[in-house]
Design goal:
CATH topology: Arp2/3 complex 21 kDa subunit ARPC3
Oligomer: single chain
Strand content: under 5%
Protein name: Probable queuosine precursor transporter
CATH architecture: Orthogonal Bundle
Function: Involved in the import of queuosine (Q) precursors, required for Q precursor salvage.
Low-confidence stretches: none
Shape: globular
Largest sheet: 2 strands, antiparallel
Family: Belongs to the vitamin uptake transporter (VUT/ECF) (TC 2.A.88) family. Q precursor transporter subfamily.
Structural class: mainly alpha
Subcellular location: Cell membrane
Membrane topology: Multi-pass membrane protein
Mean pLDDT: 89
Order of helices and strands: HEEHHHHHHHH
Strand order of the largest sheet: 1-2
Distance between the termini: 20 Å
């Protein structure tokens, strides 16, 4: 089950980087990157892994995601610069969609590594204080605080100097509000996944014990 969750985590990360170039209008309330609808679910996954398998397992998942993102960026860059076939007419579109800018890539990786490790740290500080109770508190507190850092770091590093400060702050605020909303409503999902993961982990342990 740990491998299954880590696979989803890494898959969501790579997917969010690919679709981040698309901006969508959220009912006229905010303009958000399409990545927002995917990336927000990486935090509950690390919370579930940390709750069931421990802090070290959650940190390893974060590290794995960081390494995969770097390799994905390298291979995408290689794919962009491979000479196109004579009949391939979409090279410019391919480069525009997948290329991104070096500054945005750095912003994404920086925000990711800082916020995800902060999420794991806050989650386990609260768990050491409350034990196995109050999962809702550590799930929401860790996610909401780390998402603030993620949003602020990414938008600041990626766009500072390219737009007025007021627009920059508005972008941070609208994206953060959306992420907080998702964090709150996904709490039942975290409880469900923790229950299922604990059951799977127990079954795996029993199977291993019998095999031994």
């Amino acid at each position: 089950m740990h491998l299954f969750l880590t696979s989803f985590f890494v898959g969501f990360l790579v997917l969010s980087n690919i679709i981040s170039v698309k901006l969508f209008d959220l009912w006229g309330l905010a303009i958000l990157p399409a990545a927002a609808i995917v990336y927000v679910f990486t935090y509950p996954i690390t919370d579930v892994i940390g709750e069931v398998y421990g802090k070290k397992a959650a940190q390893q998942t974060v590290k794995a995601g960081f390494i995969v993102q770097i390799f994905a960026s390298i291979f995408i860059l290689i794919a962009i610069y491979l000479p196109p076939a004579p009949f391939f007419a979409d090279q410019d579109a391919f480069s525009a969609i997948l290329g991104g800018s070096f500054r945005v890539i750095i912003a994404s990786l920086t925000a990711y590594i800082v916020s995800q490790f902060l999420d794991v740290y806050i989650f386990h500080r609260l768990r050491s204080k409350h034990g196995s109770s109050k999962l809702w508190l550590r799930n929401n507190a860790s996610t909401i605080l780390s998402q603030l850092v993620d949003t602020t770091v990414f938008i600041t590093v990626a766009f500072y100097g390219t737009m007025p400060t007021s627009a920059l702050l508005a972008l941070i605020a609208t994206q953060y509000i959306f992420k907080v909303f998702v964090a709150i409503i996904d709490t039942p999902l975290v409880y469900f996944l923790v229950k299922k993961t604990k059951a799977a982990a127990k079954k795996e342990a029993e199977t291993t014990s019998i095999s031994a």
